[in-house]
Automatic annotation (TrEMBL):
Transmembrane segments: none
A cellular component annotation (GO) from this entry: SCF ubiquitin ligase complex
InterPro entries from the UniProt entry: F-box-like_dom_sf (IPR036047), F-box_dom (IPR001810), FBXL15_LRR (IPR057207), Leu-rich_rpt_Cys-con_subtyp (IPR006553), LRR_dom_sf (IPR032675)
Residues making up the signal peptide according to the UniProt record: none
Listed Pfam families: DUF7885, F-box-like
Protein name: F-box domain-containing protein
Domain F-box: 72-113
Example GO biological process: SCF-dependent proteasomal ubiquitin-dependent protein catabolic process
Source taxonomy: Eukaryota, Viridiplantae, Streptophyta, Embryophyta, Tracheophyta
Length: 663
């Protein structure tokens, strides 16, 4: 019946007084009777996606429901959605409901029907906006207009904690598929109750065949089925990182090996069900593998390591084996077949003896090894250390941590054998003494540039007469941190042997005095550029005055954090002599407002970073001086300065708008 007929109704025709609009009594709940001659339609509280119109007929008035697309089964809706003309349309449809999102994310690239024409879709876009249902907060949709690409030309996404869900992965798969595809995906600490499962990974596998990097950290609900999907759908995968994934076993990793021949890097950590079989498959089926890291996997043994390294096509250049149940056999394989290895890390190998390391060195296969790091391995002794020095002729960086059986003799023998050594780091090697350090410097050859000692408790400060030793003119960086026994006598001897130092780090040497540091400052001929003396409690202004006088023209960084005997006199010398200084740390020093004022008077001083944290004698009176220094400052630390008020700092922030101020 036309609307005009309704408006001009005169009452002659029967209009169903007091009757019901619905033939079906079950639908009468939608109507509320107001009077004996009128019915009013009351819609449900939850608004329908498509509002059904009234349809008036000759002898009946009824509400006819328009058919909804949601009544279609998933199979039919799948066929409709895979025929959408473009990525923007798919992204719009994915916002309608979770059901549509999950269906769209299950469509593979090969299942999408090609676009037939470029007809305008303005009307359909308007309809999409009208019909769009707000996506719940737990769905992380990616708009079609987002064009930000990763540095390698592909999109990068990271999901962590509560955001790591299957719905989020489905949204990423749909949103990125039409814009170059997802290149890097990282999932961390997914919740076990409603986090990422195999279903989520299958969505990524279907919609992101361009995935190259996948990291799964502490994802407890993903198992072999998820890796099956990744292997079948992401053949371009290059890097795989699995950490604390208890449901992933050899089967899942073998699926990756069979389907991802471009794999170049593999990291496995704390995966209790991954063992030798999968590593053998990786070694034989992934000829491009260059980096392997395995840590704390109890099922990995000698067979797995041998399978990785003994392959004829092995081009492994970076190998990390940590906390594994391997024996001397594995290290013999490394020494024989590791011809392409340039970086090797061995840590916590409790079942490897001195023989294993000795054989690895004498196998003469590590000709290209450049960097070697060994931590907490009982098999490292003086004998095996010397063997590795002889068997690795191109070794440049050596790091020994917690190797309790290495003594002075082994360290000196290694220094003599490793002719290409440029950097040596010893950490918690408590059998090494003062004589071992001095002997290594004197016998290391002409290429050693850096020496670092950390927490070596065996070093005692003994003033002994030393024979004529060869100086180490090549050493540029000396770092001795938290070695309480390393005192003035030891440092004086090191200073005489190393006249070309540029960088000196003596942090944590609370026993150091002016008498020990002054000879080093006087013997450095090239000029010091970076000096870290944090925690050296007994140093006084005399050291800073000598440093400013001897090295003021080259000094760029000076850290005096915790040197509580440093006063304003040091700041006067710094302001007058240190023209290149750009980073100065005076935290917890005994400086006052006068010292800050003197520092600000340095006409050519170009400080960029200044810290006076914990300087209890610095007050609001220093604000004008700090403002003057602020012309070049980029960072200023005023934390724990109790005599500086917050209001003064606020005014300073307004003046130094370019400077980051901590208070």
């Amino acid at each position: 019946m036309p609307m005009s007929t309704l408006v001009n109704y005169s009452g002659d025709d029967d209009f169903y007084p007091g009757g019901s609009f619905y033939i079906n009594p079950m639908d009468s709940g939608l109507l509320v009777s107001i009077g004996s001659c009128m019915d009013v339609y009351c819609p449900p509280r939850k608004r329908s996606r498509i509002t059904a119109p009234y349809i008036f007929r000759e002898n009946n008035l009824e509400l006819e429901k328009r058919p909804s697309i949601d009544v279609l089964p998933d199979e039919c809706l799948f066929e409709i959605l895979r025929r959408l003309p473009g990525g923007q349309e798919r992204s719009s449809c994915a916002r309608v409901s979770k059901r549509w999102l999950m269906l769209l994310s299950s469509i593979r690239r090969t299942e999408i029907c090609p676009r037939k024409s470029s007809q305008s879709l303005n009307e359909s876009s308007k309809l999409d906006k009208e019909l769009t249902i707000p996506v719940p907060d737990d769905i992380e949709m990616i708009s079609a207009e987002d064009r930000e690409l990763g540095s390698d030309g592909y999109l990068t996404r990271c999901l962590e904690g509560k955001k790591a869900t299957d719905i989020s992965l489905a949204a990423i798969a749909v949103g990125t598929s039409s814009r170059g595809g997802l290149g890097k995906l990282s999932i961390r600490e997914s919740s076990s109750s409603r986090g990422v499962t195999n279903l989520g990974l299958s969505k990524i596998a279907h919609g992101c065949p361009s995935l190259r990097v996948l990291s799964l950290w502490n994802v407890s609900a993903v198992g072999d089925e998820g890796l099956f999907e990744i292997g079948n759908g992401c053949h371009m995968l290059e890097k795989l990182d699995l950490c604390q994934c208890p449901l992933i076993s050899d089967k899942g990793l073998i699926a990756i090996a069979k389907n991802c021949p471009n794999l170049t890097a593999l990291t496995i950590e704390s995966c209790a069900n991954i063992g030798n079989e999968s590593l053998q498959a990786i070694g034989s089926l992934c000829p491009k593998l260059q980096s392997i890291s395995i840590k704390d996997c109890p099922l990995v043994g000698d067979q797995g390591v041998a399978g990785l390294l003994s392959s004829a096509t092995s081009i492994l250049s970076r190998v990390k084996l940590q906390s594994l149940n391997i024996t001397d056999f594995s290290l013999a394989v490394v020494g024989h077949y590791g011809k392409a290895i340039t970086s090797l890390t061995l840590s916590g190998l409790q079942n490897v003896s001195e023989k294993g390391f000795w054989v690895m060195g004498n196998a003469m296969g590590l000709q290209t090894l450049i960097s070697l790091t060994i931590t907490s391995c009982r098999g490292i002794t003086d004998v095996s250390l010397e063997a590795m020095g002889k068997g690795c002729p191109n070794l440049k960086q050596m790091c020994l941590r917690k190797c309790c059986f290495v003594s002075d003799n082994g360290l000196i023998a290694f220094a003599k054998a490793a002719g290409s050594l440029e950097g040596l780091q010893l950490e918690e090697c408590n059998r090494v003494t003062q004589l071992g350090v001095i002997g290594s410097l004197s016998n290391c050859g002409s290429k050693l540039k850096s020496l670092s000692l950390v927490k070596c408790m065996g070093i005692k400060d003994i003033a002994v007469g030393t024979p004529m030793l060869s100086p180490c003119h090549s050493l540029r960086s000396l770092s001795i941190r938290n070695c309480p026994g390393f005192g003035s006598a030891s440092l004086a001897m090191v200073g005489k042997l190393c006249p070309q130092l540029h960088h000196v780090d003596l942090s944590g040497l609370d026993g150091m005095t002016d008498a020990g540091l002054l000879p080093l400052l006087e013997s450095c001929e090239a000029g010091l550029a970076k000096v870290n003396l944090s925690g050296c409690l007994n140093l006084t202004d005399e050291v800073v005055l000598a440093m400013a006088r001897l090295h003021g023209e080259t000094l760029e960084l000076l850290n005096l954090d915790g040197c509580r005997k440093i006063t304003d006199a040091s700041l006067v010398a710094i302001a007058d002599n240190c023209l290149l200084l750009n980073d100065l740390d005076l935290s917890k020093c005994a400086i006052t407002d006068s010292g800050i004022a003197a520092l600000s008077c340095g006409e050519k001083l170009n400080l960029q970073i200044l810290s006076v944290s914990g300087c209890s004698k610095v007050s609001n009176k220093s604000m004008p001086s700090l403002c003057k220094l602020g012309k070049t400052l980029l960072g200023l630390n005023l934390q724990h300065c109790n005599k500086i008020s917050s209001s003064s700092v606020e005014l300073l922030m307004e003046s130094l708008w370019r400077c980051d101020i901590l208070f």
